[in-house]
Amino acid sequence: MNKWRIWFLLVLTTFLCCVQVPVVAKITDVATQVKTKTEILRRQLVAAQNLESAGLYRQACNTLLPVLKLAEFDCANLIDNQISPTQKAIIENLANSEISASGLRILGDVLRLTGALDNSKIMLNRSLAAAQNLQMDAAVSAAYLSLGNTQRAFGKRQEDIKKDADPNYEKALDFYERAIASSASTQQLQAKLNKLRLLVETKLDSDIGNLWQEIKSKVDNLPATTQSIYDRINFAESLGCLSMQVIEPHVDTIKWPFPPAVNRCAVKSPLHSVDS
Fold first, then answer.
1. Rounded Cα–Cα distance for residues 161 and 157 (Å)
2. Which residue from 222, 160, 173 is spatially nearest to 200, judged by alpha carbons?
3. What pLDDT sits at residue 31?
4. CA–CA separation, 77 vs 225, rounded Å?
């Protein structure tokens, strides 16, 4: 009887091993495929960002749509600020994932740079929702930063047609402050830079306080990269505006020409240049 039991256990063990090995191998293979696919999608997102940085907005958009599985969308229509209710529903029903959060944010940035502000806001709001659902603090901060930039663009558009831009600027300020509160990463410095720039250009009722000093300590320690050069230029122009606001009561007595960037500063006195 014991021999039969031993024989049965040996047969059963052999059978289970034969079944388990292929199953484990298949699971491992699927996991590897998923990881590889995700890496490919991430590389495509980086490629889209590079195209955006180069000013190739339509190409960046065309790169992003397949990554986001938005086959029903056309970049020409998106850039023209056109989107149907069906397409809005598709955006809302996208799965929450790292790729969706990042891809929609990049697409929102691209659309803002082409002037499609309404569509930009749609993409960025969905990016924010995905990032919040996944509890990705850096992605949440990045989405708030981009939303602030788009809201600021709305304000500039209103200002250009001589309408009240302050409500849009106030929303932009709120988004920048949320971005600062959401992350201690690179987005926080970008949000602080953009917040300072917004305040010195609009004179919103908000205390700048030591904001510029906080930024200076960070900017001084930035590595030598293309982005850090842009950050330093951004900061220098904001400091220029701050200086102008300090001397504003005496601005009409200054006899030298002002740099073009000063024209964006929020000063009440008319800026003038000396005739050559």
1. 7
2. 173
3. 47
4. 35
pLDDT of residue 258: 54
Task: Tell me the percentage of the chain whose pLDDT exceeds 70.
Answer: 75
* Ranges of H-type helices in the chain: 2-53, 57-67, 75-79, 85-92, 98-113, 117-133, 137-160, 166-182, 186-202, 211-219, 226-246
Burial readout 104-128 (b: 16 or more C-beta within 10 A, e: otherwise): bbbbbbbbbbbebbebbbbbbbbbb
Crossing angle (nearest 10°) for helices 85-92 and 117-133: 20
The predicted structure's pLDDT at residue 108? 99
DSSP state of 260: G
Alpha-carbon distance of 237 to 201, in angstroms, equals 10
What's the rounded Cα separation, in Å, for the pair 136 and 143? 11
DSSP 95: P
Residue 178: which residues within 8 A CB-CB, separation 6 or more?
A: 144
CA distances in angstroms from 13 to 1, 18, 21, 26, 157, listed in the order given: 18, 9, 12, 20, 73
The token pair that represents 61 in the structure block:
């958009």
Can you give the residue ranges of every domain in the chain? 27-135, 138-270
Q: Which residue has the tokens 């969706």?
A: 100
Q: What's the pLDDT at 145?
A: 97
How far, CA to CA in Å, does 270 sit from each of 202, 204, 264? 15, 19, 12
Listing DSSP states for 218-249 in one string gives HHTT--S-HHHHHHHHHHHHHHHHHHHHHSGG
Q: Which two tokens stand for residue 140?
A: 């949440």
